[in-house]
Amino acid sequence: MDRVKLLSPGKINIGLxxxxxxxxGYHDIETVFHEVKLFDEIEMEISDEIEFETNSNEIPRxxxxxxxxxxxIFFESFGIHSGVRIYxxxxxxxxxxxxxxxxxxxxxxxxxxxxxxxGADDDLLSELGSLIGSDVPFFIKGGxxxxxxxxxxxxxxxxxVPYKIVIVYPNVKVSTSWVYGNLNLRSHDGxxxxxxxxxxxxxxxxxxxxxxxxxxxxxxxxxHPIVADVKEKLYEIGAVxxxxxxxxxxxxxxxxxxxxxEKILNAFSSKFSCxxxx
Length: 278
Description:
Structural class: alpha+beta
CATH architecture of the largest domain: 2-Layer Sandwich
CATH topology of the largest domain: Ribosomal Protein S5, domain 2
Largest sheet: 6 strands, mixed
Number of helices: 10
Family: Belongs to the GHMP kinase family. IspE subfamily.
CATH class of the largest domain: Alpha Beta
GO molecular function, one term: 4-(cytidine 5'-diphospho)-2-C-methyl-D-erythritol kinase activity
Pfam family, one: GHMP_kinases_N
Radius of gyration: 19 Å
Domain GHMP kinase C-terminal: 206-273
Shape: globular
Number of domains: 2
């Protein structure tokens, strides 16, 4: 096979706890990742050179490009001396806490595995993904998973999210490193694991509101109050649970049913992006 096309999904975090800062500069966290049907598209084909194209002017073309980083790591790991052309069609907003960049690099790893017939299993691809970014291993398997460490230790969990999901991106870009750098840590000693809370209470929105938090909200809400306004508005229009995803700035709402989409769209500025996840 010399050409492959893959969907690259987004994710939300159903809760996020930050436990401590590590000696390597990262933080130990606890979260539940949930894959959502909001997709970028990636087309790849074997080429003479390594080439990258995208429809987005927000994606860097240099060393910090996670797709190209995935190519370098994959080629070095398997001794491949070749080229590949990548075309990325972006739909997941950049800097939103929805994991778009991590998902893209995971898709590139999976695509390269197919194109070059390496036969690497998910565990090996996840190991390579952890060299790119903390969220990348999750996207190798997707689904719903409990994540610990810096987010790279993944335990798939069986839990059905029984809601319609609405994601609102308020067109505010947030740097993950900036959020963690301004975070005031709080203690989680004595609390039940987030995995247990989510699994046992996913169908009890009152319990979710009481027990499931995102520690990064305080920082983002303080500097970007418009993000807090989005969360409040989602509750006003009928969400039974709402939370900022990851380091923001996207906020999701769980709805038991989504009525008129126009009503939801009208609740937010035309500068915002709203995504309806079935």
